[in-house]
Design brief:
It comes from Ligilactobacillus acidipiscis. By secondary structure, the protein is an alpha+beta fold. The protein has 2 domains: about 35-245 and about 520-540, Dipeptide-binding Protein, domain 1 (Alpha-Beta Complex); about 285-515, Dipeptide-binding Protein, Domain 3 (Dipeptide-binding Protein, domain 3, Roll). The protein is about 30% helix and about 20% strand. It is built from 17 helices and 25 strands. The chain has a 6-stranded mixed β-sheet with strand order 14-20-13-19-17-18. Mean pLDDT is about 90; it is low at about 1-30.
């Protein structure tokens, strides 16, 4: 769940790029290393605790070192995991899974139904403080447990013997099986959690694995680590790669140079790089259902509690100019919080139907008028706000543009300072509400609009910013309860909810990410999804 920004590629630089490509084209990997993949990461790894993970890097590592009931295959379709079979009751409120026998954890323990029971209870337990516990809403008693109204052991999941798992729901969940392919629902080994205590998931050695690969070499703070083929994995014959090496490079200039010298097999590109290299072999535009937006803190009395001021800031941003001049091939203007081409009903894309003139439009005159009215309402003549972001080259370039747009188009009456911090720090500060404005993003956890919309409802821990709306909350609740199996009514609930977000300017959607990248043709079988976990390396292999 990442950006770009980089110096212009000059003619001489491009010539050097082409020269390096030609020079490197005859190199061959050593046969012993043929099934080793070298992958670039844009951000540091915060955690590999399934209950606490909240970002794309963590989920990628969990998705490839762990197995759940299902895995997400191509186009976010469910593929086999630990569930050998599944039965659903006639009312859709009970799922019974038969698990594969004799699958192993890396510590030698057998993976059993109790591991799922333990994991789910641990995640919904308020003491764990999981940012994703809300995804369990609909599983019997989950919401009451999260709100400390019922005991953790009342959760609707039960082990019937060693290999049979029963899940009971309070309501039908139309996307239930998609959820089961998301790492937050994967099993956890109770012995390991108790053994490692607070260290669990904070380094590769404080974890056990049951997936295609095992993690190695991550200390919790370093910027390189490995996934190594797991010899005890139940489907190890399908796994071709012996090892995946990861290196965090926040600059695409650095990562592309490493790609050119064949030390990396993947690198994302800046807008300038994409323009220069889009005809080169290996160039791809990777799928993404990720929306980047400005978050407003409405609780710290900075002035952003005023709707007109939030609207003024949003109307002051020329998104088309942002995309064309700054992002280039790495983004398209957002129509709202829900990304385009994520979900459709009766042939209509949700993002198209939910789009309004409010929320994402550029109108300098309207911005200035709204700001004047808003400042009068709060009794101020100007505002000083800080904009928080991740410390990547791309994000730094993006906030420079946003800073200039807001200050220039609002006649200097809103002055923006910027703070650039490591991803882990930005995530922590966002969650704690320690910001005025924050450039952040949300990637779809599964292919349904609710994955974006529900983070703004109630007291969802992922929401941040302090906004609440009774009508919005009811629409989200109705879409997940009384209308959960009526596709038309549920669709309408979500459309109305999305329009409320836009009209109230809860956030300022900016753009939907497109990710230009270089991946050499020798990398085969890679599964990359727009929703859910991005990368599935289980079937990836190297073929020169």
């Amino acid at each position: 769940m990442y950006l770009f920004n980089h110096k212009l590629v000059t003619v001489s630089t491009l010539c050097l790029v082409l020269f390096l490509t030609a020079c490197g084209s005859n190199n061959k990997n050593d046969k012993a290393d043929k099934q080793v993949l070298n992958w670039n990461e844009k951000t540091e790894l915060p955690t590999i605790d399934p209950s606490l993970a909240m970002d794309g890097t963590s989920f990628d590592m969990l998705n490839n070192s762990m197995d759940g009931l299902y895995r997400l295959g191509k186009k976010s379709k469910i593929t086999p995991g630990l569930a050998k079979s599944a039965k659903v009751s006639s009312d859709g409120l009970k799922y019974t899974f038969q698990l594969r026998r004799n699958t192993k954890w890396s510590n030698g323990d057998t993976v059993t139904a109790k591991d799922f029971v333990y994991s789910w209870r641990r995640t919904v337990d308020p003491k764990t403080n999981s940012g994703y516990a809300y995804l369990f809403d609909g599983i019997k008693n989950a919401t009451d447990i999260s709100n400390e109204k019922k005991a953790v052991d009342s959760l609707g999941i039960k082990a019937v013997g060693k290999y049979k798992l029963e899940v009971s729901l309070d309501k039908q969940i139309p996307y239930f099986k998609l959820l089961m392919g998301f790492p937050i629902f994967f099993p956890q080994n109770e012995k390991a959690v108790q053994k490692y205590g607070n260290k669990y998931g904070t380094a590769s050695k404080y974890m056990v694995y049951n997936g295609p690969f095992k993690m190695s070499g991550w200390t919790g703070t370093n910027l390189n680590w490995k996934l190594i083929k797991n010899p005890t994995y139940w489907d190890k014959k399908a796994v071709k790669l012996s090892q995946i090496n990861f290196k965090v490079n926040k600059s695409t200039t650095t990562s592309y140079n490493l790609y050119q010298s064949r030390k990396l097999d993947e690198t994302e590109l800046s807008a300038e790089q994409a323009k220069a290299l889009n005809k080169k072999k290996g160039y791809q535009v990777l799928p993404s259902a990720t929306t980047y937006y400005l978050g407003f803190n409405k609780e710290n009395h900075s002035g952003l509690e005023n709707k007109k001021i939030r609207q003024a800031i949003s109307y002051a941003i020329d998104r088309k100019q942002f995309v064309n001049k700054v992002l280039g091939n790495t983004g398209v203007v957002s129509k709202g919080i829900v990304s385009s081409k994520l979900a459709s009903y009766q042939g209509k894309d949700f993002a198209d139907e939910a789009q309004t003139t409010a929320g994402v439009s550029y109108d300098k005159d309207k911005a200035q008028r709204l700001l004047k009215e808003g400042l009068n309402e709060i009794g101020k003549k100007e505002l000083k706000l800080n904009l928080l972001t991740d410390d990547t080259d791309a994000n730094n370039k993006n906030v420079e543009f946003l800073q200039s747009q807001i200050e220039e188009h609002l006649d200097g009456k809103v002055k923006i300072s910027t703070t650039s911090v490591p991803f882990k720090t930005r995530l922590a500060r966002s969650t704690a509400g320690d910001y005025d404005l924050v450039l952040q993003y949300w990637g779809a956890d599964f292919a349904d609009p609710i994955t974006f919309l529900q983070i703004f409802s109630g007291d969802n821990p992922s929401k941040t910013g302090g906004w609440k709306d009774v009508t919005f909350d009811k629409l989200i609740k109705d879409s997940m309860t009384v209308h959960s199996m009526d596709q038309g009514k549920r669709w309408n609930d979500m459309l109305q909810a999305s329009k409320i977000l836009s009209e109230q300017q809860v956030i300022a959607p900016l753009y939907q990410a497109k990710t230009p990248a270089m991946i050499p043709p020798k990398v085969k079988g890679l599964i990359m999804n727009t929703a859910g976990v991005s990368n599935n390396w289980k079937y990836t292999y190297i073929s020169e």
